[in-house]
Amino acid sequence: MKRRFLFALAAMMALCAIAQVGVAEEARISENSIPVKDYVRLHVLANSDSEEDQALKLKVRDAVLDCARELLGDTCSADEAYAILAENIATVEACARQAAENAGFFGAVQAQTGVFSFPDRQYGDLLVPAGEYRAVRVLLGEGAGQNWWCVIYPTLCAIDEKGEFARESAEIVFYSSIGRWLRSALGGEE
């Protein structure tokens, strides 16, 4: 009888471990393949590839991200975020224009919302696949220079103190209720 109990307990623990691995793998896969409709992207196109225009692009990017953060606040969905940005595109454009003028650029600055094509983009472990995405696009002057893009909702556009991309993320912890119960029943840590 004792042997059967130990065997059943070992089998149950093995199943719990397999379930935990399966949940973690499913979460990793789903994290790496968020549906296109759940994103709103930001795309900033520089006037040219000159050093000055590329530096301007980054200043405008920072201003637009700050503006978007204020507008979006505690937004709960990509649909809501896109609607807010579309309603406030004049504000986004004004932020971009002000940043450009502060940097000494007085050429055309245009912000628009729409659906645009984007290439693959890797954010740490997260791959945002190439495709058609709702986005805010900011064109500086001719818009003929190298561009910059990110995901504005959910926020994957964090910039660290060095001015480089840094993904904002909270650690995700997976657990099994059965595993916790077994550990506590057998005197292990909870």
From TrEMBL:
InterPro entries: Spore_II_R
Signal peptide extent: 1-19
Top-level taxon of origin: Bacteria
Keywords: Signal
Name of the protein described by the UniProt record: Stage II sporulation protein R
